[in-house]
Amino acid sequence: MSKDTVADVGMNRTGIKTSPIDSKDIIQEAQRAIPSSPGDGQGILEVRKQYARESGDGLGHVPPPSSLKGMAKTAVDMLKGSKPTVFIDKLGERLAFERTGVRLYEGALSKLDVYGSWEGGPSRELLTKILDDELGHFALLIESMEKMGADPTAMTPSADLSAVISQGVPAAISDARTNLRQCTEALLVAELTDNASWELLIDLARGLGHDTLADRFQLALDAEAEHLLLVKGWLAAGVSTEARAPMESAPTPAP
Amino acid sequence: MALDLFQEKGTPLERQLFTWKDMVRRPYSKLDDDAFTRTRVILMNGIEADALRMKHLFARLNRELRPHLALVRRAEHHQQTMVNWLNPPDQTPLETTLGFEQLAIEATASVAIHEPDPYLAQTYRFGMLEDFDHLYRYSALYDRLEGKDPNNLIQSYSDIRPGRPTSVEHRHPLDDVRTSYDHKTADPLSKLHAITITASEFQTHDYYMTVGPFFADPVARQLYAEIASIEEQHVTQYGSLCDPDESMLEKWLLHEAAEVYNYYSCLAYETNPHVKAVWQRFVDYELGHLHYVMELFKQMERRDPAEVLPRTLPEPLAFKEHREFVRKVLSQEVDMRSNGPDYVSRLPEDHRTRVYQAQLNSEGSPSETVAAGYQWRPGTELAAKAERMGSVLEGRRLQ
């Protein structure tokens, strides 16, 4: 049987106070032993710097334009003194993020089926609406990349990095042991990033003179701002609902 | 010109030196490097892992060989480290898994094409169709779990479509044991092939057994459990191709030759200059090991290594796409099954493998669940869904 509360009292063994006798003994032993070399954590950073200096081409490159039109556009942009690949790289990042976002909301919906919601929590309609928005944004980015002559199926370096940064988000949602309230914590991370990243993309588009695109991206940002408010609200209501619940209450999941 | 195993002495064991900095070097790029660079790194890690595994087993069984095994094994451990650490940290376990299955398809296809013995070639084709299916199942997982396109890793070299369905690959253990080659009469290439593919599948098994529990999604956890079980079957299958009547030293000699052969094949195809330098260095190291074992073979068994080894290396293993060959095998042999060591067109209803399979799948099949209705398309299956949504001119779908 699954629980939809997360902060109940139980046998957690991670803290030092779990083992008063053994902990005293191991603390003394750790203090008695002398490190085999002098110094501090700085050594790790020195090695990291050494490797960073030798890291060559970094994560990888933005692929060349996939169409003649794209090549021409890139050439014109470059003549104007701008580097169009920065924009392509960031478009690829948003595209990948929105696409993954669809899978995140699918996961949240499956948690809703098991746990149901709470007062002030997400409804099926709102979760589905956000999922559709993410899908729509993904489609918008495919179209934008194609217009720029770029390949929307390529994983750009920023898309790759963004996936590395947010690796824990899908993991938190797909873990069978997390409930819907815990999943909204993961959604919050995604939505915060999404909002800031759309803002950046809009600024970049305007700076490069892609005003029509920037206007359309603004609509996407408006939607993302709504998502963020919703998710924050669900989470706040969920945490306070649990804080008000009687100790050891463990309602069973909805059938 | 083909490499002469007897003339080329390579780097002597005592000059095979490493530092931690040397072993942990710049990885290849997940985005920029050719998909076959990834598969080569995965293969050679598997070959070295097998070199260690075999030597540890021999050391348990043979006192006299122990010091010699320890000396060569240490160098190989450090070689394995250098090779495996070429994998980049932005490549997730699932992405690496796609590389494992792509390697299994393309390397086994190359082996199946070049294998001189018809029964052994049949065995490679049989196994290849199963790994081919795994690539499809893991691709569906990657698409559906993370919303990412498996072809970012596969780079259009290999097909992403069902093969022999994983759910029917589960066989009774006795239907995975094959008939071995005869070490007295088999072509040396057959021996190199069997060692190579067994090593590769063993590492695939061990990798899935290591990373499987790191996944959060229950279907992912189940899928790794399911496919790891097939990899165990494949190790049983390919491992049984090697003749158990070969002496330990003969097996060791052949394994070193297989290591030279595989590094040499990697060298022939490598496009990344940093990785290529590693292959070149390790061709020379392995030649050093081979000659070390040749001397042992002469001293301890009083036999001529030329009885066992080919004079020159055969044509390199082909790191290239084999779609035409794979599709042909798929169309002709997908329904093939095995009954003991033999390949048959169908099994009777009450066959032990059918009973075994029905039991394992009786609470559902992860490989069927993950790929239900799945057809790969560029940009993931969500690209099709986004396209169907119609106009996105507003940047969002308004209700």
Question: Any overview of this molecule?
Answer:
- The complex is a heterodimer of chains A (255) and B (399).
- With 255 residues, chain A is an all-alpha fold.
- Chain A has a domain of 167 residues: Ferritin, core subunit, four-helix bundle (Ferritin, Up-down Bundle), CATH 1.20.1260.
- The longest helix of chain A has 34 residues.
- Chain A starts with 19 loop residues before the first helix and ends in an 11-residue tail after the last helix.
- The relative contact order of chain A is 0.15.
- The model of chain A has no long low-confidence stretch (mean pLDDT 91).
- Chain B has one domain.
- Chain B is globular.
- Chain B has a two-stranded antiparallel ribbon with strand order 1-2.
- In chain B, helix 2 packs antiparallel against helix 3 and helix 4 runs antiparallel to helix 5.
- Chain B contains 14 helices and 2 strands; from the N terminus they run H-H-H-H-H-H-H-H-H-H-H-E-E-H-H-H.
- In chain B, strand 1 and strand 2 form a beta hairpin.
- By secondary structure, chain B is mostly helical.
- The relative contact order of chain B is 0.17.
- Chain B is 59% helix and 2% strand.
- The C terminus of chain B is likely disordered.
- Chains A and B meet through helix 4, helix 5, helix 6, helix 7 and helix 9 of A and helix 5 and helix 14 of B.
- Chain A: InterPro entries: Ferritin-like, Ferritin-like_SF.
- Chain A: This is Ferritin-like domain-containing protein.
- Chain A: It comes from Corallococcus praedator.
- Chain B: It comes from Corallococcus praedator.
- Chain B: InterPro entries: Ferritin-like_SF (IPR009078).
- Chain B: This is Ferritin-like domain-containing protein.
